[in-house]
Design goal:
Blueprint: H1 3-39, E1 42-51, E2 62-67, E3 73-78, E4 84-91, E5 94-100, E6 110-112, E7 120-124
Parallel strand pairs: 1-7
Antiparallel strand pairs: 1-4, 2-3, 2-5, 5-6
């Protein structure tokens, strides 16, 4: 192999390594944009909480909406006199909605926010209501 061919080969190999070195940098920003686009799909939600027996709206119910895996993120609200809790900037994905109210059983259903209709209607049963006397 001549010295000139060796130089060309060495230059070609160097160019290939240089291009391969920048290729991941060119791909990463696009992947980051996709991730941030997915994370930015947030919505405002309303949750209507009623008594499971008579359907009356429940005031002062603690509402905790959780999403994500592992160390999940969450947001809290309390229902108003109309039984409505309003939360802003919730990711449009499947969430767990935990409801806590005095004299009522705790519930924590999973709700897919991509398909759920607003307001999200949930009901609570009184503690001990399953016991017949």
């Amino acid at each position: 192999m001549s010295r000139e061919m060796f130089r060309k080969l060495r230059t070609t190999i160097a160019c290939v390594f240089l291009l391969l070195g920048f290729l991941p940098v060119a791909i990463c920003p696009a992947q980051e944009e996709d991730r941030s686009a997915r994370k930015s799909q947030k919505i405002d939600i309303q949750i209507l909480v009623t008594d499971g027996k008579d359907g009356t709206p429940l005031n002062n119910v603690q509402v905790l909406v959780k999403w994500g895996e592992g160390e999940s993120e969450s947001q809290k609200a309390v229902t108003n006199g109309s039984g409505i809790a309003k939360l802003k900037d919730i990711p449009q994905e499947t969430v767990t909605i935990r409801l806590v109210a005095n004299s009522y059983r705790l519930v924590a259903p999973s709700v897919n926010l991509k398909t759920a209709k607003q307001p999200i209607k949930l009901s609570l049963d009184k503690e001990g209501s399953h016991i017949s006397q």
